[in-house]
Design brief:
Elements lengths: L3 H17 L3 H10 L8 H18 L2 H28 L2 H28 L3 H20 L5 H7 L7 H21 L2 H24 L7 E2 L12 H4 L11 H6 L6 E2 L10 H11 L5
Parallel strand pairs: 1-2
Helix pairs in contact: 1-4, 1-8, 3-4, 3-5, 3-6, 4-5, 5-6, 6-9, 8-9
C-alpha cells in the first residue's frame, strides 16, 4: 500500500512544478520581442539558490528526502532555463549582472556544501542545511508582503498578485501536510508561516478590493513611483519602457505617489510670473 506521505509529496511536486512554470507566458513574450530589459532576474537567481540548498537537504536523507530532491531539481532546471533566456535577450550590462549573481550562487552553494561536510557529522549536517533552507523559504513566502502596507494605505489591490498569493498558499498547505506526515520541522515551519502570511494577505485583499483607491502625495520628492510586485513577478518596473508613459499616467488616480517636477518649489521666477499672468487673463 502506498504511504500517505508519498501521495502528498507527489501532489506537492505537481503544485510546486506548476508554480515554477507560471512565468512561461512572460518568457514567451521575451522570446517573441527578443528583449528582456524590462524584466528583473533577481527572483529567479534567488529561487535557483534556494532549490539547490533543498536538493542538498534532501540528499542528506535519501529515504525521506527523495520527493524534496525531485521537486527542487525541477526548480533548478526551470530557473536555469529562465536565466539563460534572460541572459540571451538582455542588454550587456544586465548580462554581466546576471552572470555575476549566478557565479555568486554557485560559490555560495559550494561553500555551504563544503562547510556542511567538513564542520558537521551525521544528523547535524541535515540540521544546519535545514535551517538555511527554512530561512530562504520563509523569506520567499514573505516577499509578497513588500507592498502590503501600501495596499492598506491606498485601499487599492490593483498590484496585489492574488493568484501568486493563492498559489503560495496552496503550496504551503500541501507541504505542511507532508511535513506533518514525515515529522520534518524544517519543512513544516516555513510552510506554516507561509500559510499564515497567505491568510493575512487574503484578509487584506477582501478588505480593500471594493474600496475606493486613495492617492498618496509626497511633496518632498519629484518623481512618480509605482508600487508593484514587479520584483516578485520578475518584471523590472524601473527599466526603460517597463511601463509605457500613457499607461503609467492612467494609474495616477488609483495608486502611485504623484511626484511631478512641475510642482517643485524650486521653479524659476519666470515660470511663476507666467502662471500668474495666465491667471489674470493671459500672458502678452
Amino acid at each position: 500500500m502506498v504511504a500517505a506521505d508519498f501521495v502528498v509529496g507527489i501532489v506537492g511536486n505537481i503544485v510546486s512544478i506548476l508554480s515554477f512554470t507560471s512565468p512561461i507566458s512572460q518568457f514567451r513574450d521575451i522570446v517573441k520581442r527578443k528583449c528582456a530589459d524590462n524584466y528583473n532576474g533577481t527572483p529567479y537567481i534567488a529561487t535557483f539558490l534556494s532549490c539547490s540548498l533543498w536538493i542538498l537537504y534532501g540528499l542528506l536523507d535519501p529515504d525521506e528526502g527523495l520527493l524534496i530532491v525531485t521537486v527542487n531539481a525541477a526548480g533548478v532546471a526551470m530557473q536555469s532555463l529562465y536565466l539563460i533566456l534572460l541572459f540571451i535577450y538582455s542588454s550587456k550590462e544586465k548580462r554581466v549582472k546576471y552572470f555575476g549573481f549566478v557565479v555568486l550562487d554557485v560559490v555560495c552553494f559550494g561553500v555551504v556544501v563544503a562547510f556542511t561536510l567538513v564542520a558537521f557529522e551525521g544528523g547535524s549536517r541535515r540540521t544546519f542545511t535545514g535551517i538555511l533552507c527554512a530561512t530562504f523559504t520563509t523569506m520567499m513566502y514573505a516577499a509578497p508582503l513588500a507592498a502590503l502596507r501600501t495596499t492598506i494605505k491606498t485601499k487599492s489591490v490593483e498590484y496585489m498578485p492574488i493568484l501568486l498569493v493563492f498559489s503560495l498558499f496552496v503550496n504551503g498547505c500541501v507541504w505542511l501536510t507532508f511535513a506533518l506526515l514525515v515529522t520534518d520541522v524544517f519543512v513544516l515551519v516555513p510552510n506554516a508561516i507561509g500559510i499564515l502570511l497567505g491568510v493575512l494577505q487574503f484578509c487584506v485583499y477582501l478588505m480593500c478590493k471594493n474600496s475606493t483607491p486613495i492617492a498618496m502625495v509626497n511633496e518632498k520628492e519629484t518623481e512618480i513611483q509605482d508600487f508593484s510586485f514587479g520584483d516578485i513577478a520578475g518584471i523590472d518596473v524601473k527599466a526603460n519602457n517597463a511601463i509605457p508613459q500613457k499607461r503609467a499616467l492612467s494609474r495616477l488616480d488609483a495608486f502611485p505617489i504623484i511626484r511631478s517636477p512641475s510642482l517643485s518649489p524650486n521653479r524659476s521666477n519666470s515660470t511663476q510670473h507666467h502662471e500668474a499672468d495666465v491667471e489674470h487673463g493671459g500672458a502678452n
